[in-house]
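User: My advisor asked me to double-check a structure prediction for Alpha/beta hydrolase before group meeting. I don't want to rely on an old file, so could you generate it fresh from this sequence?
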Amino acid sequence: MSDEELDVAYNVRRKAGPELFDRHMARYKDMSEHAVDGLPGHPGIVYDEASGERLDVWGVGGDGLRPVFVFVHGGYWVALSRGVSSFMARTLHEQGVATVVPDYTLAPAVTLEEIVRQVRASIAWVHRHGREHGLDPGRIVVGGSSAGGHLTGMAMAGGWQAPLGLPEDVVKAAMPFSGLFDLRPLTRVYVNQWVKLDLERAAALSPALLPAGYRCPAVIAVAEHDGTGFLRQSRRFQPHWGAGELMVVPDRDHFDVVLDLADPESAVCRALLGLVRAT
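Assistant: Sure, here is a fresh prediction for Alpha/beta hydrolase from the sequence you gave:
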């Protein structure tokens, strides 16, 4: 593909246009604030001493340990935060599921390798300290959107768990949305001015090119009206993973598909709850 074609395939903000993009971002913020207003939880916990990054725990209850959905926000690794990424927390709480939303240091302040390390550290924190906060460390489901979908894929990959003292199956199920699973094309698009990848590093950070280890159940979700690059990546990653299904969500775009997690009647939310219950 030419550089221009790659930009069309992966520049979903331009595809949406400024008005629609701003409306989506306002929904992220408003829905997240509403979701956690009065919700039992433990916000602002430092999960990684090296970086000082924090996470929020939402939707814990007095009925014993709850399965947990760890949601990793998107923003092409350079934007957004946990504060606008908890829009599903109330819905999941009502279904008996807790939500953990970690921040990670944004590029270009750190490398993408460091961002991956931090996200994996957040999962390690849930496994080690979850019980103290009402979370079941044996029932961790990880998901994320866009760049968060890539980071979900890096949590699904094998080989990182043992050095952190974690079981290979610490991630019991996964649901990446509009994920980036092969980063090599991104070395030629605008986002690389911040993440600064070469082909060798891009390959080493690509879930589709890494050994899988334990193949957890997964739903690989992507929007019908997503960027063509994201659609192509999801369709290729699903058979590579080999332990999940591809869900192309109709009438949704790159930014609003993940908001369906706040609607318990949506196919997206039902799919996530199915993964949780299967743990």
